[in-house]
Amino acid sequence: MCWVLPDTMESFESIIEVDKLNKSFGENHVLRNFSLSLKQGENLVILGKSGSGKSVLIKCVIRLIEPDTGKITILNHDISLLDQDEMDLLRADVGFLFQSNALYDSMTIRENLEFPLRRHWSKEEREAKAEAAVKEALEDVGLAHTIDMMPSELSGGMRKRIALARTIILQPKVILYDEPTTGLDPITGREISELMNRIQKKYNTASIIISHDMSCIKMTANRIIMLIEGRNYAEGTFENLIKNNDPKVRDFFEGL
Amino acid sequence: MASQNILNTPFLQEVGEIARFTGRFFREVTKPRQEWEEFINQCYFIGYKTFTLVGITAFIMGLVLTIQSRPTLVEFGADALLPSMVSVSLVREIAPVITALICAGKIGSGIGAELGSMRVTEQIDAMEVSGTNPFKYLVVTRVLASTIMVPVLSSLAIAISLYGGFLGANLKGDVSWALYWYQAYKALVFADFVPAIVKTIFFGFAIGIVGCYKGYTSKKGTEGVGRSATTAVIVASLLVFILDLIAVQVADVLGFT
Q1: For residues B124 and A103, is the Cβ–Cβ distance under 8 A?
Q2: ipTM for the complex?
Q3: A233 touches chain B (CB under 8 A)
Q4: Pick from A59, A99, A115: which is nearest to B130 by CB?
Q5: Is residue B132 part of a domain?
Q6: What digits encode the pLDDT tens for the residues B144-158?
Q7: Rounded CA gap, B125 and B133, in Å?
Q8: What are phi and psi of A71, to 5 degrees?
Q9: Which of residues 160-189 of A touch B (CB under 8 A)?
Q10: Domains in chain A, start-ordered, CATH in brackets?
Q11: Cα–Cα distance between A100 and A166 in angstroms, integer?
Q12: Is B171 inside any structural domain?
């Protein structure tokens, strides 16, 4: 274990706390006593090999998957104590960008973006503000002209941006990114990383970013946690970890 | 130990899972925040978009039944009973069951494939993280729409198939419009319609719940989506026959036959 905690993060308010999380699928122990703390305004990257439990971790955080043991606190709420309605309300403050984008393919882009509003805004609010909110979110990702198009008419990079627009439409306090640049060409990947930084600055969000794209990590990470065999193996800034001599850490940063 | 093994078969596990899924439907349907807009959409897709198929099938069904029954009745000198025989057969059994089987094919596979595709592309998860209850939005609306629209389609199918019967009776015979309908209705009593319509409510519910269960719990990518659609049709069709058998017995016990 090699811990390199950046001092600058200690002063921020904690948005998400994960304490001793365990999750197994049969004999496969995916997460073992995993803990993390995400501070206000921080971009925390979880780095690890495919199948190391990174996506399982953020799906536990948003309660798409129930952990076996451990405690998850979001904005001072222990999510295991929340009923379904309370959890649904809390989800307005937590955006989630899926690796596959998960756009509703039978709906237009406008309907995709309006969908999260229907649960969290009243009918009157939607009538008054939905159009402006959709346009603002689309302008944030530079795709205002796609408002009446279908997801199938867009390229992979555009779909990712639309998914991001849908994620930010409720202006969440924290965004969970599941491999945001996987499957994209390097230029589009870089554009998405820049977009993530712009959104973080504009809305002052905190983020957990699941990735093994070093270019994206370098551009977005304030802090990195290396998840190896379900454990928090190493932690630090990009600059700290790139100088680390641990062989398992070096494997990730080889060639940079 | 042996009894545990018997209970642990995949078939019984599946039955148990469907029962749990159905239980969840009844819990969710009574909770507030009904998805009326989606329910109306589903009534349109399930009802209106299936009507043409059901209508054409019902018309041919009435026509063929009449044409094929005629020679036998003529042989016994009972061709005057043709409208009565056709109407009783169509109202009590053939139109509701055939309509349900068509719906099992079209609606069951449609729901199974749609929800299955949404499951494997994480669209259902996306609904959940946006704070919408996907079970309520996707499952409850579709099951309710199916439960309501299958009896409506079945009633229309009965009317259209009787009209097909009228044309069939006139292909080789000469029965006036008034006489045909007089004889068709004379053979029927109100008690014939009650079990026919009531059982289609159960058919509609079974088609909706099986389609939704298969799609909602779909696994293993695109292959799983195909399997969900296919098994939804097979299980729903089988359930239609089983429910029909039960309905006939119950109607008999209650004196509706």
Answers
A1: no
A2: 0.87
A3: no
A4: A115
A5: yes
A6: 999 999 999 999 999
A7: 10
A8: -125, 135
A9: 166
A10: 2-101+172-253 (3.40.50.300)
A11: 14
A12: yes
